[in-house]
Design brief:
The complex is a heterodimer of chains A (219) and B (162). Chain A is an alpha+beta fold and 219 residues long. Chain A has helices at 2-13, 15-58; strands at 62-71, 79-82, 95-98, 101-109, 114-118, 126-130, 136-141, 147-153, 163-166, 178-187, 193-200, 209-214. Chain A has two helices and twelve strands, in the order ααββββββββββββ. In chain A, the strands form two sheets. Chain A has a six-stranded antiparallel beta barrel with strand order 1-2-5-4-3-12. A six-stranded antiparallel β-barrel of chain A has the order 6-7-8-11-10-9. In chain A, strand 10 and strand 11 form a beta hairpin. With 162 residues, chain B is mainly α. Chain B has one domain. Chain B is built from six helices and no strands. The longest helix of chain B has 32 residues, at 123-154. Chain B is globular. The relative contact order of chain B is 0.16. Classes of the chains: A alpha+beta (219), B mainly alpha (162).
């Protein structure tokens, strides 16, 4: 009984000390959680940057790494803004890629930033080739998160799951970079060609860092 | 306080991730807002329209000034037309938003073909995009109507005299 009263009295007397300790520990806990979050974010970033670096080492092009700083607010165009501009050697028309494949093309350049038209924008046209059947066509966006490969001849052999690559007919689009995978195909209303719907290889919704292919300084 | 709400609304409308929505098409919250301001002919609505258009122009990759132009046009038309119908009806508000959404796309299609970007893609995808955006805008306008009305009532935002 005495022991109980002694313990309770001690607890009552040390109430303020315990309360202060509790506040301090809660704050410390919050700070530690924040640090943990920051470090796990740094791990993810490190992983992404390592992938970019590996790709940069493997590829034969001179690449400018850039960070995505903004995305388009309208539905009728699909673009994003990167933090590299004219002063970093970026020019209009340069191809933008990620380790997985094509992201888009630079269409506006300012001093310190550039705007990239994404591969899912219908204004972007890329000469392309189906890896397996070697059929050529033009890939453009559909605004709905997919791309369409148009002007495929009616005798084309199109299989779902085929990979579509850039054709590289001009120096602005290097050959053999993955654009996407065919998910469906249909005969055009004019009846003289086929179109194939592609799923872009790059997950454009999660893009944080990209590489701009520098045309002027090809190795 | 209404200015703070307005700024928050502007930021939310341009930073809303498209990935949250079906087909990566997001509702045009700014268009819904400016149709409301035009329908009820709110005082200083032209400033709201200008800054809403400017915000959207800055944050989008299409022709600069297009959104300012379109928004100003809808305000002009809607504020004139709104004299002839009962505007306290959610369905009418949603219908006006739907018409403005379609008309917005038509203006973009015309400008895109005149000022020479390469193309608009396949008509069926464009149709699908418009359809999805109209559906989202109608849905959001239906729910936002009461919110806007409450804000106007609470802060006693006056209407313009004709």
């Amino acid at each position: 009984m005495v022991k109980f009263i002694f313990a309770e009295t001690k607890a009552l007397l040390s109430y303020h000390v315990t309360k202060r300790g509790n506040i301090r520990l809660t704050k410390e806990n919050f700070e530690l959680k924040q640090k943990l979050l920051d470090s796990s974010e740094a791990v993810f970033e490190n992983e992404r940057l390592r992938k970019l670096l590996d790709f940069k080492k493997k590829t034969e092009f001179v690449l400018i790494p850039a960070r995505v700083i903004a995305k388009d607010a309208a539905n009728w165009t699909k673009s994003l803004v990167v933090n590299q501009g004219r002063t970093d050697g970026v020019e209009i028309g340069q191809l933008v890629i990620a380790p997985a494949g094509v992201v888009g093309r630079i269409f506006e350049v300012s001093k310190r930033s550039s705007r990239v038209m994404l591969i899912i924008d219908p204004n972007l046209n890329v000469a392309s080739i189906i890896k397996q059947s070697r059929q050529t066509g033009i890939v453009s966006g559909s605004l709905l998160g997919k791309c369409v490969m148009r002007y495929l001849s009616t005798d084309s052999v199109i299989e779902i799951g085929d990979t579509v690559l850039t054709l590289g007919l001009d120096r602005k689009y290097p050959k053999g970079i993955v654009i996407g995978e065919i998910v469906s195909w249909y005969k055009d209303s004019d009846g003289v060609s086929f179109s194939a719907v592609l799923r872009p290889e790059v997950d454009l919704s999660r893009l944080e860092e990209v590489l701009i292919v520098s045309v002027a300084a090809e190795k | 306080m209404p200015i703070l709400y307005l700024l928050l609304y502007f930021v939310l409308s341009i930073s809303l991730p498209a990935e949250l929505f079906l087909f990566n098409i997001r509702p045009d919250l700014l268009l819904i807002l400016i149709i409301f301001t035009a329908l009820f002919n709110l005082k200083r609505c032209i400033y709201i329209v200008f800054f809403a258009g400017l915000f959207k122009d800055i944050a989008s990759g299409s022709f600069f000034g297009l959104n300012i132009f379109c928004f100003a046009l809808w305000v002009l038309i809607v504020s004139q037309v709104s004299r002839n119908f009962y505007k306290d009806n959610k369905y009418i508000f949603s219908a006006v938003v739907a018409v403005a959404t379609i008309a917005n796309y038509l203006i973009y299609i015309i400008l895109n073909s005149v000022f020479g970007k390469t193309g608009l893609g396949e008509a069926r995808f464009l149709f699908m995009t418009i359809l999805v955006e109209v559906m989202y805008n109608v849905l959001f306008s239906y729910f936002l109507f009461d919110v806007f009305k409450r804000v106007v009532k609470r802060y006693r935002i006056p209407q313009q005299t004709r």
